[in-house]
Design a protein that fits this description.
about 260 residues, alpha/beta, 9 helices, 9-stranded mixed sheet, about 20% strand
Length: about 260
């Protein structure tokens, strides 16, 4: 049975607000104490007060969702119309034998609720497209590109630019991957995928994805989100980080 595209919130706003209040009063909940040495109390408060959209809840997105929930980002909007299948089990952290056939966004939201009651997860169980992109992304501070095709990536990037929201891009294939952050006005994905229409078959379909590849790319994407929300550190902006773990290559490509 098809699931409608109505956003469904899972989690308690009370807990999220409670966590923010405790931080403002100077008390740090135990679950965040290992964050404070790096991002500080003010940084943790910013995370709890933020909303992030993750588009795609598979290999990349599932790991990003897991890490952002544990970091304490207050609201996660999870957008994915796909269902888990057996071939997802090798790399998608949210896929289990028990949830094969279930919608990825709904499963991800339930996982967030199990990890951190401070976080409100909003499941949007449908595919992002040109018609719904701006409405789905409204009100978020950062958008995470965890997609697996160029066409939808370009739609997502255009919607984020129109809304004035930073986009954290990630893509993987085999033992290779790439990560970059695009702020409004930056060259962005149109530069990376210059000359491509989006109809091309992605190399991921040929090379597949061993489990370490999405884990590495997703960790880098999550760190980019945290840098943007807290204002700490330097985002990977106007350049693309490419890695190949088979050949031990980590290289930046700069945009001028």
């Amino acid at each position: 049975m098809a699931i409608g595209c109505w956003p469904t919130a899972i989690g308690s706003v009370f807990f999220r607000r409670s966590g923010v209040v405790k931080l403002k009063d100077g008390a740090v909940p135990e679950r965040y104490q290992r964050n404070i040495g790096t991002i500080g109390v003010a940084g943790q408060a910013r995370l709890l007060a933020s909303t992030v959209a993750i588009v795609g809840a598979g290999g990349l997105g599932g790991l990003v969702i897991e890490l952002l929930a544990r970091a304490g980002v207050g609201r996660l909007k999870i957008i994915d119309g796909d269902n888990f299948a057996l071939h997802n089990l090798n790399r998608q952290i949210l896929a289990t034998m028990a949830n094969i056939g279930q919608n990825k966004a709904v499963v991800a939201a339930a996982r967030v609720a199990a990890i951190n009651p401070d976080v409100e997860a909003i499941a949007v169980p449908c595919m992002l497209d040109e018609k719904n992109a701006q409405s789905f992304l409204a009100g978020v501070q950062v958008v995470v590109d965890a997609l697996d095709n160029i066409k939808t990536r370009l739609v997502l990037a255009a919607a984020a630019a129109r809304l004035g929201v930073p986009l954290v891009h990630g893509a993987i294939a085999g033992c290779t991957g790439q990560v970059m952050t695009v702020f409004p006005g930056d060259p962005g994905l149109a530069h990376v995928y210059r000359g491509m229409t989006g109809a091309e078959r992605g190399v991921e379909a040929l090379l597949g994805n061993p489990a370490p590849t999405p884990a590495l790319a997703a960790a880098l994407q999550t760190q980019e989100v945290i840098k943007i929300l807290t204002g700490l550190g330097q985002p990977i902006r106007n350049k693309l980080l490419y890695f190949d773990t088979e050949q031990n290559i980590f290289e930046f490509f700069h945009f001028t």
